[in-house]
Design goal:
With 239 residues, the protein is α/β, with parallel strands linked by helices. The chain has a single domain, classed as TIM Barrel. The chain contains nine helices and eight strands.
Length: 239
């Protein structure tokens, strides 16, 4: 049965009190509380540093078995090496996530390319051959030159999801390229009608047998977390 995983891109925000976190909740208990309301999180700080084994053990201990951690790929891969000659560092990066994978808690890896990285199908295809087939992967393209049939086919060839990112600056085409779907809702506000459209699209994926990962903008206000709870509950209510 296809599953829906919904969350935000981070959880350590005291400014989410009291709308999301209880006023007196200690910060060290944030993740445990968060995982009682949502079933996934997109970890962004791995973009700048490699995660420690002790941190992963703490994450696992603080969350239930059904909870998933999506990991943003390190900037060395996407912004410095720009996918070229990156195999050695890629293996090192993936090696730091073995604890999550062994525990069955690892969601997709998110590779977010910089806006000045224009489409190059050869570089992308070569990099995708280095990825382990056992780990789900999604790519977010922030240069419009990637939005083409050639890109969709390159991703489909390796069962890599297109990250459908929606922001005030750019909207990614909602194209299916893998056996799961990945959404990043980055606008600061979403109307009830917009959230209903999200729920309808999510059901289309679930009915087709595709798992869905959907993450709202984190930032300093609690709206993203509240939207995530609403969407997760709304999808469950329709079943």
């Amino acid at each position: 049965m296809a599953r829906l995983y919904v969350g935000t891109s981070g959880w350590a925000y005291a400014t989410w009190k009291p709308a999301f976190y209880p006023e007196k909740l200690a910060q060290k208990k944030f993740l445990n509380f968060y995982s009682s309301k949502l079933n996934a999180v997109e970890v962004n700080y791995t973009f700048r540093q490699l995660v420690k084994d002790s941190t992963i053990l703490n994450w696992i201990a603080d969350t239930p078995e059904h909870f998933r951690f999506t990991i943003k790929a390190h900037q060395v891969l996407t912004h410095i090496k720009r996918l070229k000659g990156a195999d050695e560092f890629l293996q090192r990066f993936i090696g730091t996530l073995e604890g999550l994978e062994r525990a069955g808690r690892l969601g997709p890896l998110l590779f977010q390319l910089p806006p000045n990285f224009k489409a190059d199908q050869v570089i992308l295809a070569e990099f995708l051959t280095c990825l382990p087939r056992t780990v789900r992967t999604a790519f977010e393209f922030r240069n419009d030159s990637w939005f083409a049939d050639e890109t969709w086919q390159t991703l489909r060839d390796k069962n890599v999801a297109l990250c459908v990112a929606e922001s005030e600056e750019r909207n990614t085409p909602d194209i299916v390229t893998a056996d799961f779907a990945y959404y990043r809702y980055r606008k600061p506000n979403y109307t009830p009608e917009e959230r209903q459209a999200m729920v309808a699209r999510i059901h289309e994926h679930l009915d087709a047998g595709r798992d869905v990962y959907a993450y709202f903008k984190h930032e300093e206000t609690p709206e993203g977390a509240l939207y995530a709870v609403d969407v997760l509950q709304s999808v469950a209510a329709v079943k």
